[in-house]
């Protein structure tokens, strides 16, 4: 999508053909910097430290990381080691494991000497497919926004949580893709952006990208969404997902579940937007089965921001000595989800709905 009218992607092969460049998301929104990843370790560090984040983007970065690792050693054992190392960087988003398994499975058919080049090209194909999937999610989701606009005859207010925009994918995003498509086709949309404590992906990243692309939006404190819904200020909620079960339970950034509860209580439609690579067909009980990443408590006890003089500073906000906990994701049960917007269309959040869009999974189900 655009920054000041110039089109960007979050990850691109570098000119040297032997590395990739990513947008360093730890520097946003106050600085826009590219970072070069030239090795397996670079990719693992980038994912672990959230230089890149968002389920589809970490999948693509991991695929490139595997390719970069194969330049050093391309044996079957080296592939396995690299896959395990990259998969362990972030445990919740299934896209990471999906991308690694896809590249690793194909590599077994490829000569050792060709493996690094093949893996690099395969990572590129995953990236291109991600762009196509997200654009298609955008078209299907925009139809929902167009229907709401037609029914209400005024601007449509969307609430979103975390960042499931183009910064979380290669381009377009998942939850924000319908908003970009609607915006580009002239449907008036305005987005309520949850700040998304503790890391503030909403305030820092979603606000940055909507602002840069010219989409009207307002950042709200995480606790404000329920109040806005009670007062009829939200027409629809759209969120992304890091892992969605075959039964339609949606795992996403911590706090998503509370928004779904508030949406249900106020009869506000609540959609999750996600590509096929986010569906974990092996699971049917998200609350019991999805591993939830527990992150460093410093993300809760400290905040980083810009000072009046332009410098960045990290400050402590929790009473010193108090224990903190930092679960990074939660699960919204399928019963609270109005529909799942995918690249193939909109499904009801249940096994039958998802299988009707992915009939090739019926045999395995
Ligand atoms: O911890 P993050 O920033 O990687 O979490 C991102 C999210 O929760 C997104 O909503 C999700 O990955 C969907 S991205 C299209």
From TrEMBL:
Source species, domain of life: Bacteria
Binding positions (substrate): 53-55, 90, 201, 252-253
Active-site residues, as the UniProt record annotates them: 242
UniProt keyword annotations, A-Z: Amino-acid biosynthesis, Isomerase, Methionine biosynthesis
Enzyme Commission code(s) on record: 5.3.1.23
Gene3D superfamilies per record: translation initiation factor eif-2b, domain 1, Translation initiation factor eif-2b, domain 2
Sites marked Transition state stabilizer: 162
Transmembrane annotation, as ranges: none
HAMAP family on file: Salvage_MtnA
Recorded family membership: Belongs to the EIF-2B alpha/beta/delta subunits family. MtnA subfamily.
Identification of the protein by name: Methylthioribose-1-phosphate isomerase
Organism (species): Methylobacterium marchantiae
């Amino acid at each position: 999508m655009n920054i000041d009218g110039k089109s960007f992607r979050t990850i691109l092969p570098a000119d040297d053909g032997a590395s990739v460049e990513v947008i360093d998301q730890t520097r946003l929104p106050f600085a826009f910097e590219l970072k070069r990843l030239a090795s397996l370790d670079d990719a693992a560090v980038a994912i672990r430290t959230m230089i890149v984040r968002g389920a589809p983007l970490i999948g693509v970065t991991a695929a490139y990381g595997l390719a970069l690792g194969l330049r050093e050693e391309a044996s079957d054992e080296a592939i396995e080691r690299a896959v395990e190392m990259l998969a362990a960087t972030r445990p919740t988003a299934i896209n990471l494991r999906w991308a690694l398994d896809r590249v690793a499975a194909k590599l077994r058919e490829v000569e050792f000497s060709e493996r690094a080049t093949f893996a690099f090209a395969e990572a590129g194909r995953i990236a291109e497919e991600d762009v196509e999937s997200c654009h298609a999610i955008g078209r299907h989701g925009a139809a929902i926004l167009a229907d709401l606009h037609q029914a209400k005859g005024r601007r449509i207010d969307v609430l979103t949580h975390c960042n499931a925009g183009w910064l979380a994918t290669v381009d377009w995003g998942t939850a924000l893709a319908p908003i970009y498509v609607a915006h580009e086709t002239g449907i008036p949309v305005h987005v309520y952006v949850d700040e998304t404590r503790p890391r503030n992906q909403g305030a820092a990243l979603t606000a940055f990208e909507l602002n840069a692309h010219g989409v009207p939006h307002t950042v709200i404190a995480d606790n404000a969404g329920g109040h806005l819904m009670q007062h009829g200020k939200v027409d629809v909620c759209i969120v992304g997902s890091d892992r969605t079960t075959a039964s339609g339970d949606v795992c996403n950034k911590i706090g998503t579940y509370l928004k779904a509860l508030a949406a249900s209580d106020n009869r506000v439609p609540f959609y999750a937007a996600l590509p096929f690579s986010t569906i974990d067909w092996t699971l049917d009980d998200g609350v019991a089965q999805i591993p939830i990443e527990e992150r460093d408590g410093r993300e809760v006890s400290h905040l980083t921001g810009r000072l009046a003089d332009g410098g960045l500073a990290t400050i402590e906000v929790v009473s010193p000595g108090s224990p903190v906990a930092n679960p990074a994701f939660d699960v919204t049960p399928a019963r609270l989800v109005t529909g799942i917007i995918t690249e193939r269309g909109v499904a009801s959040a249940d096994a039958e709905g998802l299988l009707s869009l992915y009939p090739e999974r019926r045999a395995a189900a």
